[in-house]
Amino acid sequence: MPATHAVVPDPRNASILVGMRDGVTKEFRLIPKAQATVSVLDSAFMLGDGIWEGIRCKKGVIQFAKEHIDRLFESAKAMFMNLELSRVQLLQYLYETIDANNMNMSDDVHIRLMVSRGLKDTPHQNPRSTIGAPLIVIIPEFKKADPSIQHRGLKLATVHVRRGPPDVKDEMWNHMSKATDIQACIQANYLGVDEALMLDDRGWVKTCNSTNFMIVREGMGEDEGKLVVWSPTKNNQMQGITRRKTIEACRAAGVPVYEQDFSLTEVYGAVEAFCCGTFPAQISVIEVDGRKVGDGQSPGPMVQYINTLYNELVAHDIARGRAATLEDARLSDLPYSIRYQMQSMQRKPETPKLNGSTS
User: Fold this and answer.
1) What is the pLDDT of residues 28-58, one digit of tens each?
2) Fold of the domain built from segment(s) 148-312
């Protein structure tokens, strides 16, 4: 298992139940893992025609549920795929699967949510040959990140496989066709490192093959004397929710974050660097292309601080409870015009001003 996704083995995963919504019958069932199969005529199997989400669950509550469900529905819309269910229904399927596997007390549940366009009547790429609705598969597992990786840190190597524009690759949504990332991963394996560091078509640093990437540098100008975070721009990279939440947590705590283009030279000269993703959160990078980053410590003090900020954000989100996530989904299912009216009604009216008074 790659270091960014290294886990503590858990025997309970051998007997998990997989949640599946059949696209033809529209029936949702919980099926033992060994018996959970898809047809050879499934769109995802034949064509990679599907979308997915990697999700964390803690104490029975989906972490950042709104962001993950909204991204999935946006991806489905981009793919011209009608899921034929609401956000609330999908979230209820997730919770039903978690409950059936007795995962309500665990902090270390990871879910792979996969949606295939559905069953084909013949091997053919045209979506018109699809029968019924999309197939939905929910695979929950007990996955505790291997703590030794945080102490060891990650080694990266730049690969020749590039991140391209979003109109020809999957950077703007989580598409099942991961050929670009897999090719980068294969090269990283060959080079004996933990992840591939990928550049865009102009040579700017973008992301790793399965995680987002950021660096820490000394601030300049108004930031002189501070450590600041540099994150590659959104262009030509994975639109990670953990990336967004890491930036959000840093800025809320007063840590400056700059989303900008930067070079490999600036990576080599960074004070610290780190990868981030739904499963690993933040992990220090100690080496890039054979060059030690900063003092090579893992976890680096700044990354450790950022991880603390991020964990606080996660804890706050989980503390809202399951009902809050379902309410978020219910509101997101409403047309925006209705939500806007509801928000307008909740705003406090301004106090009228009398005779020019500001009191």
Assistant:
1) 999 999 999 999 999 999 999 999 999 999 9
2) D-amino Acid Aminotransferase; Chain A, domain 2 (3.20.10)
